[in-house]
Write a structure and sequence with these properties.
- This protein has about 350 residues and is of the alpha/beta class.
- It has 2 domains: about 170 residues, Quinone Oxidoreductase, Chain A, domain 1, CATH 3.90.180; about 140 residues, NAD(P)-binding Rossmann-like Domain (Rossmann fold, 3-Layer(aba) Sandwich).
- About 30% of the residues lie in helices and about 25% in strands.
- Strands 3, 5, 6, 9, 10, 17 and 18 form a 7-stranded mixed beta sheet that branches.
- Helix 11 links the parallel strand 17 and strand 18.
- The longest helix has 14 residues.
- It binds zinc ion (2 copies).
- The site of one zinc ion (ZN) has 6 residues, from helix 4.
């Protein structure tokens, strides 16, 4: 089969090449890929990616084969998948089903072969049926949606009426926006010059307040909207140090700050101001786990999240270079690749 392989840690060392078709073991399901989304971690690399490996972890497809111990999943079913290929099952994080934190976890398209290919195999526990109202394109966004659910509902525990600031209107920021709205909170989204198209989309998706940094005055706007206190919760979704500092400036005392974007570099900050003076709660959010998927699939089946609106491009896998280029550009939001039929 044809697959997009990351060959080494060297930057851009990717190749579309012939790879052996995977065979499911007794507890695995084999999926024929329909759509796989390009993620920032595919483009910029990420420490969990261990080449040589087939990339791709945001996916949907059809079950074509299964191992002898797999029950309750039928051949021909439309599915999406959690990214857990294997875990140790023994560590304290596995005991509490926090699989995302298992030190021995192997993820689809990072430590185990992924879905920029015609087929992949994954453990039966990771497979989920796509809700009937969700097509393959939207279904491939269930993984980043589960990450957004983990950040918003499980980590920050956003509640109705809160004012939430989202920094960065990229694909992930727009998913976080929708999950925050589904919890009944108010969203202020902030972008910068070049983000105009994405900010317009944020408006269409129900964001309450749109701020473009190029117009200035963000501090005054936030004060006005929060009676001078600052926002209750910040999600930094751009992975840039300047956004991190802005978020910590605009957050209220006792607010919750979630670092959702990957920073890729150490950042200097004034912890005295943040922790001692303001009692800000700093929260991490690492990918997703089974509980996040249950909530994400419920939101999808209740049509509370518009995943389709985020899909701007669908290209054949052979055009992956163009797809990766588009995914870096701000004219596109989510770019999907599909293998040959
Ligand atoms: Zn991803
Ligand atoms: Zn473990």
């Amino acid at each position: 089969m044809i697959a997009l392989v990351k060959l080494s840690y060297k930057k851009n060392n990717l190749k579309l090449m012939e790879m052996p078709e995977p065979v499911p073991d007794s507890n695995q399901v084999k999926v024929k890929v329909k759509r796989t989304g390009i993620c920032g971690t595919d483009i910029y690399g990420y420490q969990a990616v261990r080449p040589p490996v087939i990339l791709g972890h945001e996916t949907s497809g059809v079950v074509v084969a299964k191992g002898k111990n797999v029950r309750g999943i039928r051949i021909g079913e439309a599915v999406t998948t959690e990214t857990t290929v294997s875990i140790c099952g023994k560590c304290r994080f596995c005991q509490t089903k926090d699989y995302n934190l298992c030190p021995y976890r192997k993820g689809l398209g990072s430590a185990a072969n992924g879905a920029f290919a015609e087929y992949f195999c994954i453990r039966k526990e990771s497979i989920h049926k796509l809700p009937f109202n969700v097509d393959f394109a939207a279904g491939s966004l269930s993984e980043p949606l589960a990450c957004a659910v983990h950040a918003v509902i499980e980590q920050a525990k956003v509640s109705p009426g809160e004012v939430v600031l989202i920094l960065g209107p990229g694909p992930f920021g727009l998913l976080v926006t929708q999950v925050v709205k589904s919890q009944g909170a108010k969203v202020i989204i902030c972008g910068k010059e070049g983000d105009e198209k994405r900010l317009r989309l944020a408006k269409l998706l129900g964001t309450d307040v749109i701020i473009n940094l190029k117009e200035g005055g963000i501090e005054e706007r936030v004060k006005e909207l929060t009676s001078g206190y600052g926002v209750d919760v910040v999600f930094e979704c751009s992975g840039t140090p300047s956004a991190l500092r802005l978020g910590l400036k605009l957050i209220r005392k006792k607010g919750r700050y979630v670092q959702a974007g990957i920073l890729r570099q150490p950042v200097k900050m004034d912890l005295e101001q943040i922790l001692f003076v303001k009692e800000v709660v700093l929260l991490g959010s690492h990918t997703q786990k089974s509980s996040s998927w249950k909530k994400a699939l419920n939101l999808m089946s209740e049509s509370k999240i518009n995943l389709k609106a985020l899909v701007t491009d669908e290209l054949p896998l052979s055009h992956w270079r163009g797809g990766f280029r588009k995914a870096k550009e701000k004219d596109s939001v989510k770019v999907l690749l599909y293998p040959p039929n």
